[in-house]
What does this fold into?
Amino acid sequence: MAKVFIYPTTSLILSDLVARFGHQPLSAALQVREKIQTAGLESPPLQITPEDPKKGLKYAAVEVPSGVRGRMSLYGPMIEEAEAAVIIHDADFSFGCMGCARTNELIQFLLRKREIPILDIRYPRSDDEGVEFVAAIRKFLQDLPGGGA
Amino acid sequence: MKEYRPRYVGTVTKYVFVESPDMTPSDLAIRAYEISLGVMIKETCFGLQITGNQEEVHQIVARLREFDPAHIFVKDRGFPPGDPRRCRANLGGARPGYYGHEFEISLIRYVSKGIEELPGRAPDQAVHPPRAAGLARLDAKKLQKIIESQES
Amino acid sequence: MSKVRIAQLACGPEYSGVQNEIAEAARSVDAEIFFPDITLKDIRSGYDMFGLDVRSPDLKLAIARARALVEGKVEADAVFIATCFRCAEAAIVRNELRRYIHENSRLPVVSYSFTERTTAGTLLTRMEALTTIARRRALLAREVQEGLTLGVDSGSSTTKAVVMRDNQIIGTGWLPTTAVLKSAEDVIELALKEAGVTRDEIQATGTTGYGRFLVGEKIGADLIQEELTVNSKGAVYLADSQHGPSTVIDIGGMDNKAISVQDGIPGTFTMGGICAGASGRFLEMTAKRLGVDITELGPLAMKGMSTMVPMNSYCIVFGTQSLVNALAAGSSPEDVAAAACHSVAEQVFEQQLQEVDIKEPVIMVGGTSLIQGLVRAMGDLLQTEIVVPHHSQYIGAVGSSLLASGFIKGT
It folds into this structure.
């Protein structure tokens, strides 16, 4: 079972397919869950405190906006952990966690820099594309070390 | 800043979406209650949210999927159900993630189709994943020909 | 009193750890932040119709929500636009949305670029102004001072008091701020003495400025109000420009305000307070270095040419160093004074005036408006004749006194 970074990190479709084919999707929810289940100082809604953008300095310099650094403090560790990634390229309507284009560019770059297997794909817009979409994701996941169903 | 004391520590919450001609969210909820093992189940307009310890939630999700494999979709959620920090009633509007779900649900029938077709497909059959179309550049010689044909 | 509902259009605060600070600032002025509820379809159409092609989904969402507010699909009392500091894409959206809402609705709007260091305290005055405009339109509509009222402006550098009777200023007091309450008591005494009235005769009192809560509580003020709305009211009142558009600039001791005013009510405003180089302090330091009183700096600067002195920085430390170097290299005190005025004006121009729509008349108020060199430098940058009304250094006290007359019983 491989840890697969999914992009958008909030994707229901990718989350489902990666788990369905026997791997572990690395999604935003896991990071958010860890945040909101950890005691500390109260900072609703996501329990991201002003300390988190500072942690994000590991991934982006201080002149990079705080929102990028705060998001990177969530995603940076996931990118480091990832053994593979599936990237959907036309994810234009993913808000919140994926709401910042600059962060999203940095995420993709850092994934590529890690030289892990990456599947680049876009959302299906027909039945035929849906078949190829699912088949391609299954094949990509099966070919990963650790196989899968 | 006040001290924060988390609730539901050690639990996981999963969204279970159902987008099926044969099953409504309330059908799914009834099935889920039958096998609930005492975990928390909350019905929503699109399906369910299930909260409990990891193993129990995993088991329920696996059994629920069997009811309609191509039309039930599952993902993790960071917050427990009805958390005031993410509740529409408190925010005035939907949380940002909602729109992302709304968008993906509009495409999910194609994914269902893909899942249905998988068993009939040879494992080694070549795949042609949909990809973003790059802008093709016009060959200079071709352009020249077009210009010449217009001039003549 | 029902809560003022402030619609938030934003990208990044939740991930910068400052969303709670925004909510807290709103709560402290009895307002609540909410997120306009729209559908995915609204997002697509709202964003497409607006026509600004941005990449960040959260900015698309902000644009669509702004449209829903302007079109009245979602009701709100005020709008707060917040995006990350140093994000160019967001800065463009923030400015265009602020302008769009200002021009197409009556909703008061304030925009702010935050960092992870932004606190509820920083946002308080802005939120208070937003709620005042939403809640007290009737009070802000007052154009004439009536009865006998007292206004106190407890600022960071100076404390001012004004006594007014029947639309006339009859007494003033002005002192550097030392102990907040003591300074307030002293200026009140000065103003009462000049007016020839006693404390008991005063029918209503208002306070504004940094020390407004402390002073207001102590003297039992009828109106305790932030300086954004009070100063704009005072400015248009004194400049006799209560109808139509105007722009109010107040370069203070610790912060600056630039306010776009329509019929005496602020529409959009910015408030800066990060850099001492864009404040009256910079000019005080320059006057000290030149060995002149601050009141002499203005006339001195009027005789100088700012371009004769190279300034390497707006910073109160390094910029002052440039001035010192210039003096050592033989520059005249007049040129140095002019360069200091230009430096402050230019930084305010670059960092704040870009965020409000400059409409004439441009009115400068506050103590620094008496420094003619600064007014000239600002006029040059804005290419307009700046209006400095009489008693402009008492602006907050006049505004307070004017608005306080709405609290006289029986009026």
Observations:
- The longest strand of chain C covers residues 168-176.
- The domain at 4-135 of chain C is CATH 3.40.50.11900 (Rossmann fold).
